[in-house]
Structures are given as C-alpha cells and as structure tokens.
Design a protein that fits this description.
Zf-HC2 domain-containing protein, mainly alpha, transmembrane, transmembrane helix, 2 domains, single chain
Length: 119
C-alpha cells in the first residue's frame, strides 16, 4: 500500500503557487488559463485554495506586505546605524602606550646592564 501511495503522489499534477496567483491576477494566456481551470476542476483542494485566495482582500494583503517591508527596512537601517556608531579605538592612545612600553623596556635594559657592569 505504501508503494501505491508514493506512486499516486508522484503522479499528482497540482498547480504551483505561482500558477494560481498568475491565474487570479489574470496574467496567463488563454491556453494557460484553460489548463489551470481544468486542474482546478480536477482537484477539490486546489479549487478550495483558489476560492480562499479570491476571498482574501488584496488591498489588506498589499497593506500588510507594505507594512512588513517598511518595518524591515527600518530595522535594517537601525542595524546599519549601530554598526557605524561603534567607537573606533583611539589610535593615538595605542601609539602612546606602545611608545611608553618601548621606553620602559629600554630603561630596564640600561639599568640591568649598568648593574652588571658596575659589579
């Protein structure tokens, strides 16, 4: 029975989401439209999906999509600002600290050398 189920699922020729949306928007050629209508007539599930999409208010859907896109753009803009606002380490402070460390090393060497040569 499992093999039969797999064979049935492989043979299904359902509409893709893209085809269904193009059908609803009227973006198909007459031949493609006829093929989609035949698939809708053959599949109760696809017919229900088409009916549900027709019932959805496209204005509300477009508003929701635009709202989500606007919020996403704002979040991305905030993240970019945060990256730009990261403080860059003060390079002059690093240079001064490195110079002081080198001076201390040289002084330590001279002190040690004088102590050894003085003995």
């Amino acid at each position: 029975m499992g093999d039969n189920l797999l064979d049935i699922l492989k043979q299904r020729d359902d509409l893709t989401e893209q085809e269904l949306l193009q059908y609803l928007q009227g973006d198909l050629t007459p031949e493609e439209r006829r093929a989609v209508e035949e698939k809708l007539a053959d599949s109760e599930m696809m017919s229900d999906a088409e009916e549900g999409l027709r019932m959805a208010d496209t204005a509300k859907t477009n508003f929701a999509v635009n709202d989500i896109n606007r919020k996403l753009a704002q979040q991305l803009q905030q993240q970019r600002r945060k990256r730009k606002q990261k403080p860059v380490p003060n390079q002059s402070l690093v240079i001064v600290a490195t110079f002081l460390i080198l001076v201390l090393i040289v002084l330590a060497y001279l002190v040690i050398y004088k102590i050894r040569s003085g003995q």
